Amino acid sequence: MIYKIKMNKDDYFKISNKIISSNLSINDDEVTFEIEGGSYNILKRTNYEFKIIESMRSKILRFFSRYGLLVTGVLFLLSLLYMNIYRVSRIEFNRDTPINSEIEYRIKSSYRKLLCFDFCSINYKEFSKDMQKTYFEYPYINVSCKNNVISVYIANVDEANYSLSAPLEGNIVAKKDGIVDVFYVYNGKSVVSKNKYVRTGDILIEGNAAVRGMVLATTYDKMEITIPKERKVDQLTNEQSNYYDVSLFQWDFSLGKKTSFDLYDREDTLVFNLFDFFSLKKIAETKKNVIIFTYSQKDAYELAQKQIEEDFNAHMSNEQEHIISMANTKVEETEDSYIFTFIVKKYESIGEFRLKE
Question: CA-to-CA distance for 242 and 18, rounded, in angstroms?
């Protein structure tokens, strides 16, 4: 540390050969100079009077030399408290719906890892508005965070007494032909009735300032599914290799890796992350074998049905939707595949939002 000293000129020259000074300035009978800690200690042991002149810089340096650790600790604590506002421990839904997994995926896509924790900085009010616009079949969707738990509230069809934060100005129209069975109108005016046949593009619920609702109808789709007679499938085995991947300043290396597979499924789990310049991941590689399956016409038929069901379930927006029946009307066989034609009867939501022209 550097000290700025003012003392009598004659006294200074008496001890100047014992200390190392710099930036010497003489003004009448006084002299001003700077010395470091060792010379300062020598000067203190003499009987000469002197005065320490503290600049702002020296005051700051002296403060941090005394309280640096305390200040660092307080700043670190405040940083932890601030980050804890955005830390997330889990996501909770008030009930099971077909859209839960999609909403959960969207939330987790915004996660960032720091140290051993997940952080989420989304604007929950705006995110709720976006979900209300995306899933207009539900009366109300609200996403909030309290005590590090993200809560997703999805109202049921009989819970329509909510003020919407994201009103949709437009109409709900039919995205396909169908026979209307049940309709729920939360905002707007219904222009359909039970057992009414509607065509693609027909208005189902008319909106003024806002429109929200769901129309369930019976629909019929002609679907053609091609199933190959032979299919190569990657099948997981029980052999696994576990190790850690370390990343430091974009330099990656592995720790504890003993076995390598030509074909494998890899699962990464982020264990630790420090501002993306140092991270630690746990890696689990599971060996895969290529299995060749040969299908008979019966096997292919069952697989085609399963494919239709899985595709329908993946696009469901409400738990009331389901496949009523599947009628196989035609089967064609080529050299390498079977082609099945089905008439699929469904009970599904047929509405889609469309802005007014």
Answer: 66
Could you tell me which residues come within 8 angstroms of residue 42 by beta carbon, excluding any fewer than 6 positions away? 15, 18, 19
Quick one: tokens of 59? 């005051």
Which residues lie closer than 8 Å to 189 by C-beta, 6 or more apart?
Answer: 205, 206, 207, 208
Structure-token match 């420090």, residue found: 274
Please name the residues in contact with 288: beta carbons below 8 A apart, sequence gap of 6 or more: 234, 235, 236, 237, 261, 263, 264, 265
Interatomic CA distance for residues 129 and 168, integer angstroms: 10
| pLDDT, position 55 | 58
Q: What is residue 357's predicted lDDT score, i.e. its pLDDT?
A: 67
Residues 163, 100, 152, CA angle at the centre, nearest 5°?
A: 45
Rounded Cα–Cα distance for residues 317 and 184 (Å): 14
A 10 A CB-CB count for 349 gives 21
CA distance 229 to 294: 6
The alpha carbon of residue 121 and the mean position of all alpha carbons in its chain are separated, in whole angstroms, by 9
Nearest partner of 228 among 340, 63, 319, judged by Cα: 340
Tokens for 265? 């499924």
Is 328 in a helix, a strand, or coil? strand
pLDDT digits (tens, 9 = 90+) for 275-317: 667 778 888 989 999 899 999 999 999 999 999 999 999 999 8
Report the SS3 class of residue 35: strand
Would strands 149-154 and 90-93 be described as parallel, antiparallel, or unpaired? parallel
- Report the alpha-carbon distance of residue 70 to residue 234 in Å, rounded: 57
Measured CA distances, 283 to 11, 264, 278, 280 (Å): 72, 12, 16, 10
